Give the backbone structure.
Amino acid sequence: MNELQLIQSRIYEIRGQKVMLDYDIAIMYGMETKYLKRAVKHNITRFPEDFMFELTKEEFESLRCKISTSNRRGGTRYMPYAFTEHGVAMLSSVLNSEIAIQVNIGIIRAFVAVRQMVTDNSPLKRLSVLEKNFNELKQDLEEIFADYNDINEDTRAQIEAINTTLAELQTRPANRPRRPVGFIKPKE
């Protein structure tokens, strides 16, 4: 698994937003979660609710069930922070280190890739592809019927004569006596 896929695997959807959790980001930065949280708390005005929010216990339990993780060393005392793409970008100004900058670049690329995947698989895009295929099929059928209608009158008359002859052959009785084949004449 490459770095981009690893980061994408740690992007979750919570409250209808794509987010990363503080402990995943802290691992990537190579720091403890408490230091990341402390830096955020010291700069809380940089993190409005559309940049970062704290999970509720229900959200955290639901997320733990979805990703099949157990409590770490007896559980967490504080609910994790969830950072949106903008919140992750803001972290680079709060955590001003070379590692933080490089990790943030990777995380932003992962968010963009996830957004692109969602856009590529949107129902509207699939509907437009289906509509395009339908229009192509409709055009092909119209061309086929146009070719069929272009048969000239002489060809139509010949086809009708063939059909009439075939119908007559099918209606003749099949049980009439036959004349024997050969040199011997039958007795009459």
Observations:
- The mean pLDDT is 78.
- Residues 123-149 form the longest helix (27 residues).
